[in-house]
C-alpha cells in the first residue's frame, strides 16, 4: 500500500476563504471604480429582467407597451429587493432578480380557462396579471414563514459540504439551456461575444492603465459595447433584411420595440409612498381600486387557491436555488459560509421580495441572480457596496424609462454568451467545496455522482416530455398538483438537494462525519461559531441589539 503524502507534498490545502480577490465583502473600491462596477452589474442584470417579460407578456395578451412597463417595474423591484437583501438579509453581495422557476405555474395561470375565454387581448393581459399577483402574494408567505421563524435554519442542520456541492454546482450547470443554446440563436454576435469576453477577462487580465486592471475589471462592459455596436452595424447595413423573423428577433437591435414604447418618466417613488399610506389606512383591494399606478397598477389582485398552491412550488424552488447561490456568493466575496441564522434571515427577506413582486406586478417572483454571482469572481471584486450601487442604477433607470429601455434593447444572445462563462464559474465554486470532504471515500463519490447526474437528468426528462406532449409528466385533473410536481422536478438544484441531502443523512452518516467535512462545517452553523461571522454578517445601524442572532 502506498505511503500517505507528506505535508509538504500537498500544495493546495483547504482554505475557508477564497484567496486572490482584490476586494472582499466589506472592503470597497474607490467611488469612481465602485460606480463603474455597479453599472456593470446593472447591465448584466438586464438580460433576465428583459427576457422573462419578453417571453411571458405576449402569452398573456400584452402588447409592447405592456412589456416595457413590466420590464421597468421588474427592474424597480429588483433594485428595492437587492438593497433590502444587502442591508438586512444575508448582507452578501447578491443581486435579487427575476426567476425562471415561476414559469410553470405562471403559464398554467395564463392557460386557465377563465382567462383564455376573454376575447380582448388587453383585458386578458390585465386579468392574467392580477391572477399572477394574487398567487405571488399568497405564495410569498412560504419563504417569509420559513425564514423569519428560523425553520430553514433548522433544516440547514442536515446540510454538509458533500450535500451542498451538487446544489451549488447545479445552480450554475442547471442553467445550461440559457447559455449557448440561446447564444446560438444569433451565432454571428453570440460567438464573437463569448470569445472576446474570455480574451479580455482572462488572457488580458494583467493589462493595466495607470496601474488599474481595466480589462479584468470591465471586460463585460467593454465587450458588450463592442459587440452591441457590431450588431447595430449589421442591423443598419441591412444584413438581416431578408432573414427569417426568428433570426431578426434575436439579432437585430431594433426589434425589441422597447425604446419607442417606453415613457420618458415613470414615477415609482411618489406613487410608492402614496400606496403605502393607502394600504396602511385601508384594505388592499380598496387601495388598488383607488391608486393603481404602482402597487396593483394592473388592478386589484385576484386570488385562487389552485394558482397559489402551484406558485408555492416555485417559491420552494427559489428558496433552494438561492440557498446554493448564497453559499457561492459567500465564497466569491471571500467571506465565510453564512451561518444558519443569517441564511434563514435572508430567505425571510427574499419572501418579502416575492411579496413586493406580487404587489407591484412584475409577472414573476424573485431569486438570487446567478450571473451576477459569477461576475463577482470574474472581476475579483466581492464588495457589498458595488452591488448596492447597482441597485441604485436599477431604481434610477426604471424611473427614466427611455434611458433604461436603451440599455434593455441589447440583443439577448450577447447576454447568453456571457452566461456560458459566469454560470460555469458559479458551478466550479460549488465543486470547490469538495476540498473539505474525503473524496477517496466511495460513499462520498456515490452521493456526489448520483445527485449531480440525477440533478441534470431528471429535469431534462421533464423538459423533453413537456416539449413533446405540451404538458408535463404530471398530467392529472388536479392542475395545482401538476404545477407543483412539474415545477419541483424541472429545477436541477432542487432535485440535487433532495437526492444529496437524503443520501448524506441516511447512508453511513454516523461513522462518516469527518469524511463528510462536518468538523470544518460545524463551526459555521452558528453566528458565534467563528469570529469572522460578526465582521461579515452583523446588521447595520446596530440592529443586532434588537434582532440578536439565535
Automatic annotation (TrEMBL):
GO terms for cellular component: membrane. Keywords: Membrane, Transmembrane, Transmembrane helix. The chain crosses the membrane at residues 42-61, 92-110, 131-152, 158-176, 183-203, 218-240, 261-282, 347-368, 389-408, 414-433, 445-462, 484-503. The keyword Protease does not apply. Its main location: membrane. It is found in: Membrane. Belongs to the nucleobase:cation symporter-2 (NCS2) (TC 2.A.40) family. This is Nucleobase-ascorbate transporter 2. It comes from Solanum commersonii (Commerson's wild potato).
Amino acid at each position: 500500500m502506498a505511503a500517505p503524502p507528506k505535508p509538504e507534498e500537498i500544495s493546495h490545502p483547504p482554505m475557508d476563504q477564497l484567496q486572490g480577490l482584490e476586494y472582499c465583502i466589506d472592503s470597497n473600491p474607490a467611488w469612481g471604480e465602485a460606480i463603474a462596477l455597479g453599472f456593470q452589474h446593472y447591465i448584466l442584470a438586464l438580460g433576465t429582467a428583459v427576457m422573462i417579460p419578453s417571453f411571458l407578456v405576449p402569452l398573456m395578451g400584452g402588447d409592447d407597451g405592456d412589456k416595457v412597463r413590466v420590464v421597468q417595474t421588474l427592474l424597480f423591484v429588483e433594485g428595492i429587493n437587492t438593497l433590502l437583501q444587502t442591508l438586512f438579509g444575508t448582507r452578501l453581495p447578491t443581486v435579487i432578480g427575476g426567476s425562471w422557476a415561476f414559469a410553470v405555474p405562471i403559464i398554467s395561470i395564463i392557460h386557465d380557462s377563465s382567462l383564455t375565454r376573454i376575447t380582448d387581448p388587453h383585458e386578458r393581459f390585465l386579468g392574467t396579471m392580477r391572477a399572477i399577483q394574487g398567487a405571488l402574494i399568497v405564495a410569498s408567505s412560504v419563504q417569509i414563514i420559513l425564514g423569519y421563524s428560523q425553520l430553514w435554519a433548522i433544516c440547514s442542520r442536515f446540510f454538509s459540504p458533500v450535500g451542498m456541492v451538487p446544489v451549488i454546482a447545479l445552480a450554475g450547470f442547471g442553467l445550461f439551456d440559457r447559455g449557448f443554446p440561446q447564444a446560438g440563436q444569433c451565432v454571428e454576435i453570440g460567438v464573437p461575444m463569448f470569445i472576446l469576453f474570455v480574451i479580455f477577462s482572462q488572457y488580458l487580465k494583467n493589462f493595466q492603465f495607470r496601474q488599474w486592471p481595466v480589462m479584468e475589471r470591465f471586460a463585460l462592459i467593454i465587450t458588450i459595447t463592442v459587440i452591441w455596436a457590431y450588431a447595430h452595424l449589421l442591423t443598419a447595413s441591412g444584413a438581416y433584411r431578408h432573414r427569417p423573423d426568428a433570426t431578426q428577433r434575436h439579432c437585430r437591435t431594433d426589434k425589441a420595440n422597447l425604446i419607442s414604447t417606453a415613457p420618458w418618466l415613470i414615477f415609482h417613488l411618489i406613487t410608492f409612498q402614496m400606496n403605502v399610506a393607502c394600504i396602511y389606512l385601508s384594505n388592499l383591494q380598496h387601495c388598488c381600486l383607488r391608486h393603481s399606478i404602482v402597487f396593483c397598477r394592473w388592478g386589484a389582485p385576484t386570488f385562487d387557491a389552485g394558482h397559489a398552491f402551484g406558485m408555492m412550488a416555485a417559491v420552494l424552488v427559489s428558496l433552494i436555488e438561492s440557498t446554493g447561490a448564497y453559499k457561492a456568493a459567500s465564497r466569491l466575496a471571500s467571506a465565510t459560509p453564512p451561518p444558519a441564522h443569517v441564511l434563514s434571515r435572508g430567505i425571510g427577506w427574499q419572501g418579502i421580495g416575492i411579496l413586493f413582486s406580487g404587489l407591484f406586478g412584475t409577472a414573476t417572483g424573485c431569486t438570487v441572480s446567478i450571473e451576477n454571482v459569477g461576475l463577482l469572481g470574474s472581476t475579483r471584486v466581492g464588495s457589498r457596496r458595488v452591488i448596492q450601487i447597482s441597485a441604485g442604477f436599477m431604481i434610477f433607470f426604471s424611473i427614466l424609462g427611455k434611458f433604461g429601455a436603451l440599455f434593455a434593447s441589447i440583443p439577448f444572445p450577447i447576454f447568453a454568451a456571457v452566461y456560458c462563462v459566469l454560470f460555469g464559474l458559479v458551478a466550479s465554486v460549488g465543486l470547490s467545496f469538495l476540498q473539505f470532504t474525503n473524496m477517496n471515500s466511495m460513499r462520498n463519490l456515490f452521493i456526489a455522482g448520483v445527485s449531480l447526474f440525477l440533478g441534470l437528468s431528471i429535469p431534462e426528462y421533464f423538459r423533453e416530455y413537456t416539449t413533446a406532449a405540451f404538458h408535463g409528466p404530471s398530467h392529472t385533473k388536479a392542475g395545482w398538483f401538476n404545477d407543483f410536481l412539474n415545477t419541483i422536478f424541472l429545477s436541477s438544484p432542487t432535485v440535487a438537494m433532495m437526492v444529496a441531502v437524503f443520501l448524506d443523512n441516511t447512508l453511513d452518516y454516523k461513522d462518516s462525519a469527518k469524511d463528510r467535512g462536518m468538523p470544518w462545517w460545524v463551526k459555521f452553523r452558528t453566528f458565534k461559531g467563528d469570529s469572522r461571522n460578526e465582521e461579515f454578517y452583523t446588521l447595520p445601524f446596530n440592529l443586532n441589539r434588537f434582532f440578536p442572532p439565535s
